[in-house]
# Entry
Amino acid sequence: MLEVQDVQRNLARIRMRGRLFWSVLIGGFLLAIILVPTHYAAAKVAGFLWVIVSIATWMSPMMNHCPSCHKPFVEGWFPSGLIVITCANCGIQLDKRPESMPLLVAPSSLLNSPDEQAQRALIRRVGKLTLRVAVFGAIFFLAGELTLRLVFWEGASFSAHKGPIVQRLEKDVKFNRFDGPSRGPEPAGPKQANDIRILIQGDSITWGQGVRNEERLFSNRLLTRLRETNVPVDMAVLARPGREIDEHVQQLKKWGYELQPDVIIYQWYINDIELEREHRPRRDRLWRHLCFHSILQKYSYLWFFMDFSLDTLLPSSTLPYEIYMSSHFKEDSAGWLLFERYFSDWTMLAKELAPRVIVTLYPHMSLKAGAPPVMRPEIADIHTRMLSLCRAQNLICVDLSTSIAKFDDSRAVKTGPFDNHPSVAVHDLIADALYEILEDGNVKVAN
# Structure
């Protein structure tokens, strides 16, 4: 005969273990989330300990044994929500209603009608399934989060997507004093009489998205090479991801007269012509409408990575970016004519500020692993028109498409597996191309 004290003791232990499990699970998660933006190292330690303690609490054998046969319960670990806990071994049931004394009750087959038994069996099956899905989801989330935090320990770049993995990569990025925030060299002080000053304008390519070490950016590489020839030169970089031609004009008006450059270099990319974005294709994913999406997107490695992967892999009804650009920015279209006006304004201002102006064209290319880079046919016409526009304005133009196409594998061009921004090798290529222009007599930067 089983004593009531044994039943009561075991039920109290089951409840205590449930409360402990949920306290550790919720408290550890909140602690790790709070520490992420303030102290990343402490957050990693807290997250690791949180996973270990949660699993240890869940699997602990101290409170989930049947008081009759002393074998483990299947669902005895669950803290609350079930009126009856059934032993999977001997079939005995524990009534754990808090308002009454815990008792051993007979199997339901002796007390209930067949309909009631079937209804309760269905409820139990649904409850077990829900419980298993919840447990699997929690374990998957915890294991995935921990795994990705180890895999992306140093962070990584994901093109235009922003999230915790990208923030990890860019946590030590240093900005200069110009708007943006901009990244790259800046003058140490006012321009000296004998110094040559180079002003570079650009977007995320010049900014160096995906490149951790600032010294490997083409702006720094170019400045280093020029200084190695004992040229008294300094440099100012005005760059921000996503900046188009209209903002380049504004930045040149704001800083150009103060900086007094001798050479202005403008790094162009196809998005610079995209001044009106109301028709730009946007992927509307259902999970991005969830109330917790923005929070998890900001702090969770797993959620951010799944969002990026699903958005990349799943088909979309929106127009491909290349088709959109080629159709909305045809020659003589309103979008192209608007860009031409802004480019003409920028050219006039740049020529007023500096005796030499250079435009560097970075091509929009197809980058497939194992294959060389290829200019996308939909974009070739825009690239050709941009070359013609530079010639019409009597600007020195550096077309990088031929040099980049010489790479045997497109993976050498990309800064990483998830980002098509230029790699360190391409930054070196850009610096070499500009150095040759500056040294071959077309643009004289020496005394």
Notes: Residues 1-5, 74-83, 96-111 have pLDDT under 50 and may be disordered. The chain has 14 helices and twelve strands. The CA atoms of residues 413 and 423 lie 5 Å apart. The radius of gyration is 32 Å.
